[in-house]
Amino acid sequence: MQLNKLIAFHKTVGDATRIRILSLLAAGPKNGQALAGILSLSPPTISHHLAKLKEINLVTDRRNKNTIYFHLNESVLHQYSQSLPKLIIGKDNPMTMDNSLQLEHRKIVDNFFSDGMLKTIPAQRKKKMIVLYHMAAGLKMGRKYTEKEINDYITQFHPDYATIRREFIVSRIMHRENAIYELNPRELWDEIVES
């Protein structure tokens, strides 16, 4: 997730009417007329707010015959809601990590790399995340990379660039849009879950 998307989310939901709409949709799908009636607002006003919520994918719609029903996209709500604390607190930020944890992470990196090359992709989630964090450290924040540039960057560590590129996306280390890759803010990356 990119920082600008997180900002757009908070700007959009920073409205009392939109929060009320989301609360109503959390109880189940509703059509625009029903929302207008419950909230005592005009249908065009409801349509305006729903359009804003759909722009950030927080609300989806489905047609049933001649009626459009609006649904809350709970997974998007959870994803954005959890991203802000990570951004502010920075759970996986090395600046907030204690020394023993830094040493443990360094040891894992040393075990999986030889002469800068990744020997094998770790199967254990925690170790894989530490390795991915290490590999992504050389990417520049705010720079947009083509797929070829990302592949070339990854092959300096491991020949299976497709798998690692996919792991960067799945772990939210990078964001891909129209075959362009961009590093997400580090605070938004999937956490390294300590055992």
From TrEMBL:
**InterPro entries xrefs:** ArsR-like_HTH, DUF2087, HTH_ArsR_DNA-bd_dom, HTH_MetalResp_TranReg, WH-like_DNA-bd_sf, WH_DNA-bd_sf
Where the record annotates domain HTH arsR-type, the positions are 1-92
Q: From the Swiss-Prot or TrEMBL record, what is one GO molecular function term?
A: DNA binding
Q: Which UniProt keywords apply?
A: DNA-binding, Transcription, Transcription regulation
Q: Name one Pfam family in it.
A: DUF2087
CDD domains named in the record:
HTH_ARSR
Looking up NCBIfam families in the UniProt record yields: HTH_metalloreg (NF033788)
Q: What is this protein called?
A: Metalloregulator ArsR/SmtB family transcription factor
Specify the species.
Peribacillus psychrosaccharolyticus
